[in-house]
């Protein structure tokens, strides 16, 4: 800000305070080297060093010592207030100490008059120190503007990079969430597959046991069928004998033959009932076996569908992992680019893109 103010005030021509010849002749006390001139120089120096200078005070001070300004000059303002406004501002402490030293010391070299020393301090054409103070801040102002423009450009680039990084971070977070959802679904399907495999094993064991029982029942039914045929043959033989005995009209019937025939008939009926019961049991067993077989087929189909879904979810999870790794790789590349740009902005070193060899494992 001080440099800009100096650059602005350097364009305004600095007026020179010149005492009026008539006044100097009328007031001999204001002659060079006199006490009045030294006192005037000290008062003017105090006025210039005051934080809030009052123009009326300087006008009264100049009128008291009989100093008149050349109002007829075209470069001078027509009032004391505008003259004071056109004067260059007092330099900051420590910036140009030679100007304040001139105001404090009335005659530092060769016994120069105080007013002439004051005019030489305020003139931009006769003081090399003031010339440096008014020309050097111009270049520093240009460099400051260029640095500010560069900083604004870098800030805009950093803002754009930050937006890109935030977008990549959001994409990576979404991909990670989707991968977590897929992993949870994959775990759930794997648990269902394991339960289906356990159920399939259980029903397979039950089906094997039922098949074994069915084989035993079938063997028993075959054996009973053979006994039934044998009993039928015996009954037919006995009936033939009975018919032959009745046809021969023999009066004497073998004792116990009728009882034996009744006993065999009752046994044959019992065997027939047993065979019917075994046949019904066989039918029930066949029905259960068919039911177990149908359930086994259904479980096998569900198991195959679950395995296909597991394979599909595994492939989707691999794709999500690769997408997550790619986004992570892009995020690291963005971070490297932003770090490199910040390093270039701070150090001024040329930026070269880093190699991607360290991140190849992320692209798999």
Automatic annotation (TrEMBL):
Residues 77-87, 115-144 have a biased composition (Low complexity). Residues 17-32, 97-110 have a biased composition (Polar residues). It comes from the Eukaryota. Residues 6-35, 73-144 are annotated as: Disordered. Residues 172-330 form a coiled coil. Keywords: Coiled coil. This is Uncharacterized protein. It comes from Catenaria anguillulae PL171.
């Amino acid at each position: 800000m001080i440099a800009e103010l100096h650059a602005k005030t350097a364009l305004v021509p600095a007026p020179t305070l010149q005492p009026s010849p008539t006044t100097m002749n009328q007031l001999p006390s204001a002659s060079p080297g006199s006490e009045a001139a030294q006192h005037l120089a000290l008062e003017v120096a105090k006025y210039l060093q005051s934080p809030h200078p009052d123009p009326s005070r300087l006008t009264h001070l100049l009128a008291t010592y009989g100093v008149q300004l050349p109002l007829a000059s075209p470069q001078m303002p027509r009032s004391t207030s505008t003259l004071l406004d056109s004067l260059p501002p007092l330099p900051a402490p420590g910036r140009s100490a030679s100007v304040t030293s001139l105001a404090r010391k009335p005659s530092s070299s060769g016994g120069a008059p105080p007013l002439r020393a004051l005019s030489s301090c305020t003139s931009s054409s006769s003081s090399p120190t003031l010339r440096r103070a008014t020309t050097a801040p111009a270049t520093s102002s240009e460099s400051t503007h260029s640095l500010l423009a560069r900083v604004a450009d870098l800030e805009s680039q950093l803002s754009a990079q930050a937006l890109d990084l935030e977008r990549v971070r959001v994409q990576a977070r979404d991909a990670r969430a989707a991968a977590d959802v897929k992993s949870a679904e994959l775990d759930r399907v794997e648990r269902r597959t394991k339960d289906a495999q356990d159920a399939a094993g259980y029903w397979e064991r039950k089906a094997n046991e039922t098949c074994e029982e069915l084989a035993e029942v079938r063997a028993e039914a075959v054996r009973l069928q053979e006994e039934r045929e044998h009993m039928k043959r015996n009954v037919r033989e006995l009936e033939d004998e009975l018919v032959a005995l009745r046809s021969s009209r023999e009066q004497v019937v073998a004792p116990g033959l009728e009882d034996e025939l009744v006993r065999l008939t009752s046994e044959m009926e019992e065997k027939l009932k047993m065979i019917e019961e075994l046949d019904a049991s066989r039918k029930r067993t066949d029905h259960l076996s068919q039911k177990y077989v149908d359930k086994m087929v259904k479980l096998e189909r569900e198991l195959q569908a679950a395995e296909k879904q597991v394979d599909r979810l595994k492939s989707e999870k691999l794709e999500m992992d690769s997408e997550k790794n790619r986004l992570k790789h892009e995020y690291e590349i963005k971070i490297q680019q932003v770090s490199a740009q910040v390093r270039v902005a701070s150090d001024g070193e040329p930026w070269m893109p880093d190699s991607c060899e360290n991140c190849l494992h992320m692209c798999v």
